[in-house]
Protein: Anti-sigma-W factor RsiW
Amino acid sequence: MKCDSVQMNIASYADRSLHPINMEEIKAHLEECEACRAWYQDVLELERIWNDPALPALEEDLTPAVMAMINRRPSPYRPHNRFNPLLKMALASACALLVFIYNGAEFFDAAVSHIGMINEQFAQSISAMLHSVSGNS
Ligand SMILES: [Zn+2]
Structure:
């Protein structure tokens, strides 16, 4: 008997509803095939869980409980969700980029001339410092 037909019939084997000949075939296969034996153990375990009296009966209406669980979950679209800071930063950098694209040339010129002025002042003060140092010596 092949593994797939054993595994296909394993639930019927577990509740002993197969023809006795098939029962024997599967039993023999399970003794020599580790994979199907593991499969069989899984089926038995699932069956045990399924029949566990601790599980809530399926006849109960589960909808209110499920809906209550869904309502307790944080909505991904609430205004104070955790994605908001990122969104704000993305918007801020998009705005900055837009401002830069439209005013970039003027901004850059202003920045360059400002840096140039500072450099000039810096050079002058260094030169003044050097003059005073050489004048003292
Ligand atoms: Zn097998």
The CA atoms of residues 18 and 32 lie 20 Å apart.
